């Protein structure tokens, strides 16, 4: 009843007392208490966010044997939440978890199949195909394997909700008829080693730091759904979206091409391909020729993942 007691205290406004109850139980061997305390510290409610402290309680939950805590620890170790990013340690944690958890074992198999160095950096990338010089539009054929595409779609499927856009007046994410797909953002706690390695691969093809990328967003377009012509830049942003990378996760549907009306170019999605395009000019201003659309899907379902890359590193924990 320890977790229930803590939740009642938190609901009544006694978050500190609730945390003390969880901490005492966690020290006594209660894995669920340790995990809940870590979650509160990661989420920033009902306690103030403290990633370093969260990692301490997450480690305690793992030591006791909490499976979900083990996978969360792997993700945070790799992406550097609450400590320096450490791919070798994250991989070691995943190997330990894989011995008893089929989900971890499946992730490890995918990572082992990747061409990576000891730091998790890709050692092999496909040759780029230039589709336009101005704006710069480049395709990277087969950047992802079918198994990697399926993994991203699977992670994203659990997060799907009606897609949103950034309101230029307030900076908040809002629903808008310009974008009618379903989407979900893979935040730091869900950035497993497969997702992390793919994000690093995207950084490599875009010649940017992985820290410049917003959390990977998985999108699903069903028949009739589309993303009308738009720019990916954010009006008035001090840290602008300079590059977009689209990862096409499947094929076999009708419609759904990526259309650039200013240069009369339509790219037909092929599962595993990546499409990179610049959103800004050399002076950092938004490039109106980068306006593009996700054309309506006619039949089937289109899955893709989007990585918006900023001019400078972003904090994924503070993005709305």
UniProtKB/TrEMBL annotation:
Pfam families: 2OG-FeII_Oxy_3. The keyword Disulfide bond does not apply. It comes from the Bacteria. Residues 212-316 form the Fe2OG dioxygenase domain. The keyword Amino-acid biosynthesis does not apply. Gene3D superfamilies: q2cbj1_9rhob like domain, Tetratricopeptide repeat domain. Its cofactor is L-ascorbate. This is 2OG-Fe(II) oxygenase. It comes from Sphingomonas citri.
